[in-house]
Amino acid sequence: MSHADRYFPYIDGMRALAVLSVILYHLDSSWLPAGFVGVDVFFVISGFVVSASVAHYRERALLPLLVGFYARRIRRIFPALIVCLLLTSLAAALFIPGSWLSSVNEKTGLYAFFGLSNFILAETGRDYFAPAAEFNPFTHTWSLAVEEQFYLVFPLLFLAWLGGGRGRWVSVALFTGGLLASAIYAGWQSHSSPLQAFFLSPSRFWELASGVLLYQFITLVPTPSGRGSGWARAALGWISLLALLASFFVTTARGFPMPGALVTVAGTLGLIFSLHQREDLRALHRLLGNRALVAVGKISYSLYLWHWPVFVMFRWTLGLDTPLLRTSAVVLASLLAVASYRLIENPVRKARLLKRTPQVAVLLGGLLLVGGAAWLDQRIVKAEGMLSLTSPGRNPAMWYPHGVNADPAYPGCDASPRHQASDGGLLSIYEPRGCERQMPLQARTLYVIGDSHALAYEAMFKQFAIRHSMRIVAYNNGGCPFVSLQAWRDIDHPVCRSHAEAALADIGSRAKSGDILFLASMRMPRLSDQWGVYPLDEIRYQVFSEEARAGRQRAQQAAVDDLMPLAERGVRIILEGPKPVFRSPPFRCADSFNRGNPVCEPGFRVSRAELESYRAPILEALYAVADRVPGAAVWDPFPLLCTDAEACSAWRGEAPLFFDGDHLSGFANRLLLPHFERFISDRPPAATSEPELTGDD
């Protein structure tokens, strides 16, 4: 039997160590601080195993080699992956309410079908080590994408090896050159662009190539025999195992993957080199080839596929913070992995029918299956509104700030936004169209500049545009507030500042006397995000520290300088006052299956006195800006959103005032609309009746 056809239990033992380290890290990073390097073990093993697998191919021509190779890769990778992706998409549609992150999650899942999800994660700036990554059920597919991209070039570099003779040394030279180039590039990227270095293939190629070169070295260089060589191999094996296990604890994300992954890769290579074709190293073989580790190693691919979406679904619903919940999640992931291995992965890989089928047919059929599965995935995503079991999914108009595009009182009118490219951010234009009784547009225009908190007024913008036949032009930059009076967030942030200047310049080229500029942004310190609560010391520092006071002074002057040219042209400027903020996100706690999640424990009520203390210096600064800019005024929605003298609540009865800890809900948009209308029309603001709560919102 050739080496390529033999089964080596120690390989599955190493796979078990790799997948278990990843699982422990994903359960609680404090248990195994560097468990994420288990993926690097997989990379090295994959390079070694795929080389051993392809080495016995009889085909020497490029096209038959490619067809056979990719047909086998499709059979090995995609059946289990497709089932996992589709069921994960369905579970997400049922239990994960759409939020600011949904589009990234959905795009990651779609691209995972084509081995490209690592590009999405790198492009969107989702750090693997940041909390947001833990709530994307498809984050783990980045490593599969790296392997699949490696397989695109592997047969081209390995072809010369199959010809034997000098061709083998040509292949060695090609992989060596690729490894060196990748390692140098990874070293540079790990410091200049660590996110891209972590996720993208060029900085990971060296890890897979090292496994290939190890196989080629073992094949080309005769294995020494004799008592002395046995002791040397045993020593190398034990040292390599200890180095590998140590890397699970001591590796850091800094300088990763180069030089961060070096110890892990070296330990993996040393273990394989020591054990391959050396059955006399019985102790190491018994350790890594024991029945328990081998059993886990055999299902390691399916276990890797399933553990992450199961953990993510627990985080979104019940939580993943108690021993019982963690045990339940591991058991469920293991059961799904065993089912995937026995019912999908193994049967497809060993199917005699597929082995007898022409490989080109297997390849084409596999590609069609991938395309069809991706199409089905998008149908699931688009049907989320019908499938969702969450309160936000069932009542989108109540929860989501984008609201509805029409108004029953104005038949036929539609104010869905038209989006245009702009250096000042996402440019959205709202104006009524198709109205049965079309009124001419007002001469004046309402302009908006702000971050996602400005966009959270979208429902109000749509209704205002319809009711007053007015054009609203909004410049939105998520994460980039304008006149936040927190200098580090806007005037000292080069990207945000450039967007603000571009938006001001564009408005300056359009605006005329009588127009209105509405400035809404995040101005309060956030008490939480979608994942957890911020430290109190950090919150107080952002408001009361000397640096914060100095920053507000600079930001006040910058605001006056920015707004004065527009005010002098007769543009009326409205500054939004700081709204309440909360420590728990309502959208994550609105249903029976997620209400007990630890993220809900801080609650949805905050002392009014506490919020007023945070608001006071910011509100004072806003009024100071308004006093210095002709025609400027402060519109303060806080009293309408917080009517209790003791504490502010994120709910009004059963209706949410806020979607998460600080973004308005659709219900709150309808609540604020009459007051905003009165303020714009220069009539004194009056108490407003609350919007009617209907079951079909």
Note down, in words, how this protein is organized.
- Helix content is 58%, strand content 6%.
- It has 697 residues and is of the alpha/beta class.
- It has two domains: 285 residues, no CATH class; 270 residues, 3-Layer(aba) Sandwich (Rossmann fold), CATH 3.40.50.1110.
- Strands 1-2-4-3-5-6-8 form a seven-stranded mixed sheet. Strands 7-9 form a two-stranded antiparallel ribbon. It has a two-stranded antiparallel sheet with strand order 10-11.
- A hairpin with a 5-residue loop joins β1 and β2.
- The C terminus is likely disordered.
Distance between the termini: 68 Å
Helix content: 55-70%
* Radius of gyration of CA atoms, rounded to a whole number: 30 Å
Shape verdict: elongated
Structural class, from helix and strand content? Answer: alpha/beta
Main β-sheet description: 7 strands, mixed
Mean pLDDT: 92
Number of strands: 11
User: Reading side by side through the largest sheet, how are the strands ordered?
Assistant: 1-2-4-3-5-6-8
Number of helices: 28
Any idea how many domains? 2
Query: In percent, how much strand structure appears in the residues?
Result: 5-15%
